Amino acid sequence: MTESTVSDTAPDVEPDMTVDNRGRGCASGIAQVQRALEDLRDGAVLVIKSTDRRAKQEYPQLAEQTPHELLAIESKRGRLLRKEYTTYLEIHHE
């Protein structure tokens, strides 16, 4: 799934877990995401909140390299003109 084909609208699902990486770079927050991916059951939905603009590239790459499905990445203006990204991943274990 390329960035242009990723939905920018939140799916109509209740998330099972949220990881808040706002204020951190994707690289420093990936450890929290990795733990969540390991802890969640198959079919669960993980929401990742981020202020790192690389989220629009890195989370689609994560989904392409794993069995997890990228459902959407929303972006909106947050405080102090900073963009916030909300990524929705459906967990799939092989």
TrEMBL record:
* Family annotation (Pfam families): TusA
Taxonomically, which superkingdom? Archaea
Q: Where is this region: Disordered?
A: 1-25
InterPro entries registered for this protein in UniProt: TusA-like, TusA-like_sf
Q: Which residues form the UPF0033 domain?
A: 17-77
According to UniProt, the name of this protein is: SirA family protein
Please give the organism. Haloferax denitrificans ATCC 35960
